Amino acid sequence: MSRLWIGPLAAWFLFATALGDDSALHRYLYAATPDGAQAESASGLGLLVFDIDAGFKFVRRIQGLNLSGGARGLTGCLATHSLYYSTTQRRMGRYDLESDRVVWEQQYSGGCDRSSVMLDGSKVFAPTGWWEGSNKGGLVVIDGNTGQELHRIQVGTGAHNSILSPDGKRLYLGTITTLSVFDPRNEKRIAQIPDVGEFGVFPFTIDRRQRFAYVCLGKHVGFDVVDLEKGRAIHRVFAGENPIEHRTHGAALTPDGRELWISDQDGKKLFVFDSTQMPPAPKGHVGLSVTGHGWVNFSLDGHYAWCHTPDVFDARTKRQIGILRDGNGKPVGSSKLIEVQFRHGKVVRMSSEFGLGR
Length: 358
Known about the structure:
This protein is mostly beta strands. It has one helix spanning 9-19; strands spanning 4-5, 26-33, 46-51, 57-62, 71-77, 82-87, 91-96, 101-107, 116-117, 123-127, 138-143, 149-154, 162-164, 171-175, 178-183, 188-194, 204-206, 212-216, 222-227, 232-238, 251-253, 259-264, 269-274, 281-287, 296-298, 304-307, 311-314, 319-323, 337-343, 346-350. Strands 1-8-7-6-5 form a five-stranded antiparallel sheet, with no helix packed on it. The protein has a five-stranded antiparallel sheet with strand order 4-3-2-29-30, with helices on one face.
């Protein structure tokens, strides 16, 4: 197991001072760069930290993480107060937010795409990647404490995005037009739902009760509504007045579950739907400053929306309220973003890289 201290101690002391040692809550947005799917909006290597409560002002750059080849996922675990980053080069690492160090970093036999971590941090499930073309694709199971590869779970072609439910009882994995559901504790597959997402394998999200999954379409801007109890898609919803013929990459529910936002990266838009109705009904769209990979997510309180571009929005008014910029003022885009909240320098809450109903 490798243990690498990151940067000079002075950098950590400066950051600890920024966190403060009073009882106030401090909220930060962490972004991995470069994004393995949109290198053009990158800002060197590392994790960039932005202060949510100071207008998303740049705080610091965390270096020492091997993100060469580009980040493919960024997930967190409150129990271990750590972020787990995965890269195109079949590499994953664990960064401890409180001690400011890389606990382990290793390369694996497959993957690693958007991964999931057990709530207690004991295991990491890394999808082998959408680029894995054989039917032997699936999940690399990793010891969360040491980073050691334990075994692989064969699922199917193009294992891409995975979501651990907020209660930790279900693990969802997308492969080619298929959504699989596992019990992460015993690693048994509970359900396999075919014929979703139209084509290929693309992002999805789930509601708070885990009744519905919303799966992005591969040939149009829109989504399938999957009834997780019935085990099938029950609605296909297209964005726009007429079907828009390119893929959707990014779907997120507001934390209260009342709106579903999806990404039209080619059209530089985020489409908004009323998810209190079934099927969800269109409410309008938000314009983006640039194109990119496609993604969307929200702050834990539902106040802010961010995405694959440098734009930050007020989720209620749908107005742009900020731009993510690095220490040199350059706008930065990434689809690997997580909110972390600190009190007394300790991590007290973390979001997911997916916009989940909470």
